[in-house]
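Field guide to reading this record: the first block holds the primary sequence, the second block holds the structure written as discrete tokens, and the final block holds curator observations. Each block starts with its own label. This record concerns Phosphotransferase family protein, catalogued under organism Micromonospora parva.

BLOCK 1 — SEQUENCE
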Amino acid sequence: MAGVPEVKVVVAHQERATLRIGDVFLKIDADSGRTDVEVEAMAIAPVPTPEVLWRQPPVLALAALPGTALGRLGEPSTASSAAWTAVGAAVRKLHDAPLPPWPGRDRAELTSQLDAECEWLVRDGVLPTDLVARNRRVAEAALRPWTPVFTHGDLQITHVFVDGDEITGVIDWSEAGRGDALFDLATLTLGHEERLADVLAGYRADVDLDVIRGWWSARSLLAIRWLVAHGFDPFAPGCEVDVLKSRL
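BLOCK 2 — STRUCTURE
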């Protein structure tokens, strides 16, 4: 078996899994609709994306991107300020692009989901009532009408790759659609608030910081139940629960 590349599990949970074999990523997802969105979004996004090597449902094969991830939630990012600024510029280019032909989640849907998650967090004793209530109030700033733009929809720092000061690509486009530009910016800087100024230097647009803070709270509240159910730890240092505590 000499010369056979090692199979590495990048992420795996009940919904999907990603494996790396040499310089190829295999994404396995039983929901073909998510993969349809991912492939189409990468084809039309005006930013670097992985090359699609082949697709045979439920598997999508993508070429690995050069460089390394911008960072990880809960860990300091070693990427340069210039790299974060370059990412901000790329995000602005995406948001300035023509809208994708499919919709995203609307404000009413997000509000209903957020209220349901807050109720669960309190009812099941996952988080203190005052912590949830405070962040739900902060989140209200994000739930205002917005002008839809082409959003990535899950722009975590692990989904953005850089090499030195340059962005080399963005992965995981299955949540792409029409959405709020500030949701992408907030997702990118979640847990890395100190990098927001660098991102905005590249984004070059006036941004309501209360809305960014609102999305930090909303995204964290929305994510906790899913993370726990899929084997992740939102209570780890620097992760979602700490983001919520930082609002107190």
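BLOCK 3 — OBSERVATIONS
The chain has one domain: 65-245.
The first strand starts at residue 7 and ends at 12.
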